[in-house]
Amino acid sequence: MSVGFPILANKDIFAIDLSGPHLKIVQARVSSLKREIIGSYDYNTRGMSDSEISGLIAGYFSKLNAKNPTIFCTIPNRIAMTKNIEVPSRDIKEVEEIIKLQAGRHTPLAREEIVSDYINIGLYRQTYTKILLIIINRSIITKQLEILNMAKLRAERMIFCPESLAFIYPSMLRTGQQDTPMIIAHVDDDYTDFIVVMKNKVLFVRSMPIGAEHFLADKERSVGKFIEQVKLSMETYHGEDIETVPTKIFIVGATEGIMDLEEKVNAILHVPAKIVPYYDTLPIDADTKKKMKEKSGRASFLNVIATILSEDKVKVNLLPEEVKFRHKLEQRSKHLLKAGVQIITVMFLVCSLVVSKIYFHGIYLRRLDQELTAMTPEVGRIERAMTRVKEVKKYLAEQGHVLNTLGELHDIIPQNTYFSDIRIDENGDFSVKGFSDSMSSIFTFIGIMEESKYFENVVAKYTSKRKEDEKDIAIFEIAGKVTGRKIKPTIAEQVE
Fold first, then answer.
1. What is the 3-state secondary structure (H, E, C) of 156-216?
2. Which site among 200, 227, 334, 445 is 20 to 30 Å from 325 CA-CA?
3. Which alpha helices (DSSP H) does 40-178 contain, by range?
4. What are phi and psi of 125, to 5 degrees?
5. pLDDT digit string, tens, across residues 351-368
6. Each residue of 245-286: pLDDT tens digit?
């Protein structure tokens, strides 16, 4: 999966999972051509205090010598609450206002104790918008931000992990975009996220209380419980009437010890299931891939990998509004400071350039004045000679143009048509008089002249018929304009 990043080249960004029993960090290198996972770190933090976890994070970034790293936190569904709702509006701004007002009604917590966001699933019955509402306890977000703050770090965004998976599944599963819903069962250390996705959108998500640790402790019992939970999740999804029934199940994440699970899911649920090792299909360097594969029986790095590969696409950001506002102010201040420095630098360079140009131009002009004074007599003589040459060239060119015009008349005159008078004045106005055996030849001649590059505005001034030697002839006069330069009077006299 290659993701373009046109603004910054060769920048390292990081994703952190602080929500589970394992601290997980991945590092990605972003260039103009691709994003690639180049490092990972995990540590069992059960029983550790926030300050100890913060110390682990600070030590990791200190070893990398990373200054002001760009960090994204991943938020799994198990610490959030999701609900599929229908909002009676199609206008996005109205939808957002309704969600802000109604989010608190779906949780026992007070409005100021939650952080909420949503995923727009699509229209329903022409006037409703289907929404996946995401709500999380503000204290959970605040705790994670404080841990990072103690390590002198900050999170740019809090990204909802299921949405990240919805964006990377076409490349991870090698399926491409699908027009029907699919199930992604993401197995992690002590939970599994049941996610229904379609066209890069999360339609439904439910956390199942079974993970890699349960499979390691009692595989046979855990497999049965896993299948029961998948069945219950499918029934819940079907009851929500969100979309059509999913046609496939992809099991990803910590799957090293449960490779036979797909057969049992197929046999019991009668839904095609497939286990896909994420480290084989996503852009991960060889050393990091080896580490992830070794640990894939106990924990999954897929949630942090998905976050870092899709951070520029996902919409949901579970940072509190005041933190978002502070980030915007800081970003704006940085832009203003950078713009100010750039303006001052440009002004200094421009002023330096102008002053240096004025100085050197002054020296150059003084030298030119000296040379010009010495060359003035010779210049006058050359100018007079050039004037005479130009006049001769102009005369010859105009004379040649008249000859070309007469040659054109000779070439295009129809048979049995004769000229009795040709006039071209000094302004290029011309008239041609003559006679022809037929009137149609005259109008044919006018049409040919109009198409010629030598004439324009060609019109018949008059046409008439008369008898001559008992034969009908048509006489005419055609007028127009010769294209090109004016004709000198002497040339006009020669034509006449």
1. EEEEEHHHHHHHHHHHHCCCCCCCCCEEEEEECCCCEEEEEEECCEEEEEEEECCCHHHHH
2. 200
3. 50-64, 92-102, 138-150, 161-172
4. 55, 35
5. 988 898 898 888 988 888
6. 898 999 999 998 888 898 999 889 888 999 999 998 899 999
What pLDDT does residue 484 have?
Answer: 65
Q: Which amino acid is at 78?
A: R
User: Which of 198, 205, 196, 194 lies closest to 80 in space, CA to CA?
Assistant: 205
Phi, psi for residue 381 in degrees, rounded to 5: -65, -45
CATH classification (class only), 395-495: alpha beta
| Residues 6 or more apart in contact with residue 72 via CB below 8 angstroms | 13, 14, 15, 16, 155, 156, 157, 158, 159, 307, 308, 311
DSSP string, 371-436: HHHHHHHHHHHHHHHHHHHHHHHHHHHHHHHHHHHHHHHHHHPPTTEEEEEEEE-TTSEEEEEEEE
Q: What pLDDT was estimated at residue 34?
A: 85
Rounded CA-CA distance 421/314 in Å is: 84
What residue segments make up the domains of the chain, in order of their start? 11-319, 395-495
Residue 27 Cα distances to 71, 184, 460, angstroms = 9, 24, 85
Residue pair 466/452 in contact by the 8 Å Cβ criterion: no
pLDDT band at 400 (very low <50, low <70, confident <90, very high): low
Whether the pTM exceeds 0.70: the reply is no
User: What residues have CB less than 8 Å from 283, skipping those under 6 apart?
Assistant: 1, 2, 34, 35, 36, 37, 309
> 41, exposed or middle or buried, with CB in 10 Å at 0-12, 13-18, 19+?
buried
Residue whose token pair is 């991870």: 172
Residue 462 pLDDT more than 90? Answer: no
**Beta 273-275 vs 417-424: how paired, if at all?**
unpaired
How many CA atoms lie within 13 Å of 220's alpha carbon, on the beta-carbon side?
A: 0
CA distance 246 to 180: 7
Q: Which residue has the tokens 């599944």?
A: 169
Instruction: Give yes or no for a contact between 128 and 151, defined as CB atoms under 8 angstroms apart.
Output: no
Cα separation, 274 vs 268, whole angstroms: 14
Please determine whether the domains at 11-319 and 395-495 fall in the same fold group of CATH: no
Q: Write the burial class of residue 233 (CB in 10 Å: 0-12 exposed, 13-18 middle, 19+ buried).
A: buried
Give the model's pLDDT for residue 137: 93
Distance (Å, whole) CA 417 – CA 409 = 11
Tokens (6 digits) for 340: 């100010």
Find out whether 61 and 153 touch, Cβ atoms under 8 Å. yes
Residue 306 CA to residue 184 CA, distance in Å, equals 13
- The kind and range of the H/E element at 268 are helix 261-269
CA distance 268 to 224: 10
If you average pLDDT over every residue of the chain, what do you get?
86
